[in-house]
Design goal:
By secondary structure, the chain is an alpha+beta fold. The chain is built from 16 helices and 15 strands. The strands form four sheets. Strands 4-5-6-7 form a four-stranded antiparallel sheet, with no helix packed on it. The chain has a four-stranded antiparallel sheet with strand order 8-15-13-10, with no helix packed on it. Strands 12-11-9-14 form a four-stranded antiparallel sheet, with no helix packed on it.
Length: 456
């Protein structure tokens, strides 16, 4: 702390991203720091356990200068502790915040209404979870990982995911878990549960594991070097023959010609690109291009009220849309027709009082593609390690591959996992192309083994 202050830091932050700092520990930590530095101390925590308000009050008593809290309707659980409760607990004390009650109440009324719009995305978590002291998941990851488990069909195995998370954390060296390192821990934990893998399986140098991309990037050094370094045996297994970075990852990045990149991007999305959009593309190229495609197809959906964007209009509901300054469209939804033999149905509505009809495809009627399961006894069958979407293929039919070569990548809930060849051979058939939705153990590729293929 003294070194940071001497280096010119303006504020000293205590980042308790999992809400693990207990009240007495918070009191002692803040008091010790307060005795050593003169710059403000800022305490950030999460309320996953349900006890973080007590930690905030203890830190306040010890002299903390700033704390993070959430408006009443948005507080608690994996969010921050309740601002209104903290304010009232400190009122008429030496650490009185001076915040009046009425504005807080008015803000709470507003955010309570806003939260109802997002009810369909609420986490199933309904109470504090003291298990956080065991698995140490950051608050921002806890609910997302539960949703990821639900999407992968392992929601009922959540206790196993939590235990695997703690095991992965120890395998990686009890690391600082905050984005993006926490994602690496969570991705491997989910992979272990979906594939019934133990920590010993992961560590076994003879056992082939389809490590998630986030784990490969972590051990390659793409997010930096952890204090104490990487566990060397596991790093060798994850990276195979690939050499890890030994320097700050940004040092290895090639320079970017911003204007050339902007020109290429504008041709790809077929419209002008702002500085902000260019920056977004440079950080998240695939996400930005997908978003630009959505905008091109649907237009500026920001003019839609949140409930309409998420849930659509109810029958006979009317909506005023200001598409440009002074230009308002009045839309009234009337009815939806029955789908025809091709899955198209008519949408009947009024636009500024005039009847309109459009045809749209009912995507819920699309016939599910036939799935083939891999035969676990056939070494030429390459199976999907988890449920997800095939986002890339690194091979094609008739291509020769060696054991350890990358074959494909599967993504599920932002978790990307690479699939590698476990044998030498030739790709006989690509069963699941890019964009195919697969389940765990579905057949991705068929390979001729090295003993079966012949050279022309």
């Amino acid at each position: 702390a003294r070194e940071l202050e001497a280096a010119g830091a303006h504020v000293l932050g205590i980042k308790d991203m999992a809400g693990l700092l207990k009240p007495e520990a918070a009191r002692r930590l803040v008091r010790a720091l307060r005795e050593e530095v003169g710059i403000p101390i800022h305490f950030h925590t999460h309320d996953t356990s349900g006890a973080s308000a007590a930690s905030v009050l203890a830190a306040a008593e010890a002299g903390v200068d700033a704390v993070d809290a959430a408006m009443d309707p948005m507080s608690g659980l994996t969010s921050q502790p309740n601002l209104g409760a903290i304010v009232e607990a400190l009122r008429h004390t030496e650490r009185d915040t001076g915040l009046p009650r009425e504005p807080l109440d008015q803000a709470a009324i507003y955010w309570q209404a806003v939260r109802t719009y997002y009810a369909g995305f609420e986490s199933p978590m309904r109470a504090g979870a003291s298990e956080v002291y065991e698995h140490e998941m950051p608050g921002g990851q806890y609910t997302n990982l539960r949703q990821q488990a639900q999407a992968l069909g392992i929601e009922e195995r959540w206790p196993e995911v939590a235990r695997a998370y703690a095991e992965v954390n120890q395998m990686l060296g009890d690391i600082v878990k905050v984005t993006p390192t926490s994602k690496a821990v969570g991705d491997l934990a989910v992979l272990m549960v979906t594939n019934d893998l133990s920590a010993d399986d992961v560590l076994d140098p003879e056992r082939e594991i389809p490590f998630p991309e986030s784990i490969v990037e972590y051990f390659h050094g793409d997010v930096g070097q952890p204090p104490g370094g990487f566990p060397e045996d596991l790093q060798r297994k994850v990276l195979k023959d690939r050499e890890p970075l030994r320097v700050r990852p940004g040092k290895e990045l090639s320079p970017v010609d911003l204007e050339t990149t902007r020109d290429e991007l504008q041709r790809e999305v077929d419209r002008p690109v702002s500085d902000e959009e260019l920056a977004s593309y440079l950080m998240y190229p695939e996400v930005f291009v997908e978003f630009a495609g959505f905008q091109s197809l649907y237009g500026d959906v920001s003019v839609l009220p949140t409930p309409v964007f998420f849930w659509g209009l109810r029958q006979d509901e009317e909506l005023a849309l200001e598409i440009e300054h002074g230009i308002v469209l009045i839309v009234r939804f009337l009815a939806v027709g029955e789908p025809d033999s091709e899955g198209l149905c008519s949408i009947f509505f009024e636009l500024n009082g005039q009847p309109r009809e459009v045809e749209v495809r009912d995507r819920s009627l699309a016939a599910p593609a036939a799935r083939r399961e891999a035969d676990p006894d056939d070494p030429g069958h390459v199976a999907a390690p988890m449920r997800g979407v095939v986002i890339s293929l690194a091979v094609a039919a008739d291509q020769r591959v060696a054991r350890g070569d990358r074959l494909a990548s599967i993504e599920a809930m932002k978790m990307e996992t690479a699939v590698y060849a476990e044998i030498d051979g030739v790709v006989e058939e690509v069963v699941a192309g890019v964009g195919t939705h697969v389940h765990a153990d579905d057949l991705l590729l068929v390979m001729q083994t090295g003993d079966d293929d012949t050279d022309d």
